[in-house]
């Protein structure tokens, strides 16, 4: 049986036997450091370019960036399978109807101030002083979280007294 040294030339055998993992690691680390240096320079250049943009150009860039990343205006990126359930937001879907309403007093006639304060006290649990302060700091939300029927009844009563009221 022939020895291993007779099958390989002496020079190749020396390279194989003197193979050092440290030299490979050092070459790999230097390549990684060079690549990270290139990335750092690239990021510094991009950051500098972004800082040089005007306000309008930054806005345009932000819109373009969101578009390229697949982001819509209101939320996260649209990725993955889209469900066909009711949450998919198809063209047939209607916006959810509002169930809780707020009554907002915008203005009132000075002559009807006392009547309006009494009416505000009747549908809130406020005392005379608190109701007066609430009415005087117009525009103010008088009551929150009412159903549509309750809110419209109160709005009609206040409008009859001379107040300008809005449902929100």
How would you explain this protein's 3D organization?
The chain has helices spanning 4-7, 10-17, 21-51, 55-69, 113-123, 128-136, 148-161; strands at residues 101-108, 140-146, 163-167. It is 55% helix and 12% strand. The protein contains seven helices and three strands; from the N terminus they run ααααβααβαβ. The N and C termini lie far apart (98 Å). Strands 2-1-3 form a three-stranded antiparallel sheet, with helices on one face.
List the helices and strands and how they pair.
Layout: H1 4-7, H2 10-17, H3 21-51, H4 55-69, E1 101-108, H5 113-123, H6 128-136, E2 140-146, H7 148-161, E3 163-167
Antiparallel strand pairs: 1-2, 1-3
Features:
single chain, 168 residues, mainly alpha, three-stranded antiparallel beta sheet, 3 strands, 55% helix, Ribosomal_bL12_C, Ribosomal_bL12, ribonucleoprotein, structural constituent of ribosome, mRNA binding
Strand segment count: 3
Please summarize the sheet with the most strands. Answer: 3 strands, antiparallel
Q: On the 0-100 scale, what is the average pLDDT?
A: 74
Shape descriptor: rod-shaped
Tell me the series of helices and strands, N- to C-terminal: HHHHEHHEHE
Number of H- or I-type helical stretches: 7
Coarse structural class: mainly alpha
Low-pLDDT residue intervals, each spanning 5 or more residues: none
Distance between the termini: 98 Å
Strand content: 5-15%
Lateral strand order in the biggest sheet: 2-1-3
Q: What is the radius of gyration?
A: 37 Å
Percent helix: 40-55%
Family: Belongs to the bacterial ribosomal protein bL12 family.
Protein name: Large ribosomal subunit protein bL12 C-terminal domain-containing protein
Keywords: Ribonucleoprotein, Ribosomal protein
InterPro entries: Ribosomal_bL12, Ribosomal_bL12_C, Ribosomal_bL12_C/ClpS-like
């Amino acid at each position: 049986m022939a020895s291993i040294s007779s099958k390989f030339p002496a020079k190749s055998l020396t390279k194989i036997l003197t193979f050092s993992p440290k030299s490979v690691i050092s070459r790999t680390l230097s390549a990684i450091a060079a690549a990270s240096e290139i990335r750092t320079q690239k990021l510094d250049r991009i950051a500098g370019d972004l800082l040089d943009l005007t306000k309008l150009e930054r806005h345009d860039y932000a819109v373009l960036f969101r578009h390229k990343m697949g982001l819509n205006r209101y939320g996260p990126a649209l990725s993955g399978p889209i469900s066909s359930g009711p949450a998919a937001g198809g063209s047939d879907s209607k916006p959810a109807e509002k169930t809780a309403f707020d009554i907002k007093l915008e203005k009132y006639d000075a002559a009807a101030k006392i009547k309006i304060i009494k009416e505000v006290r009747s549908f809130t649990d406020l005392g005379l002083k608190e109701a007066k302060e609430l009415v005087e700091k117009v525009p103010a939300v008088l009551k929150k979280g009412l159903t549509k029927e309750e809110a419209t009844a109160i709005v009609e009563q206040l409008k009859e007294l001379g107040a300008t009221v809005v449902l929100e």
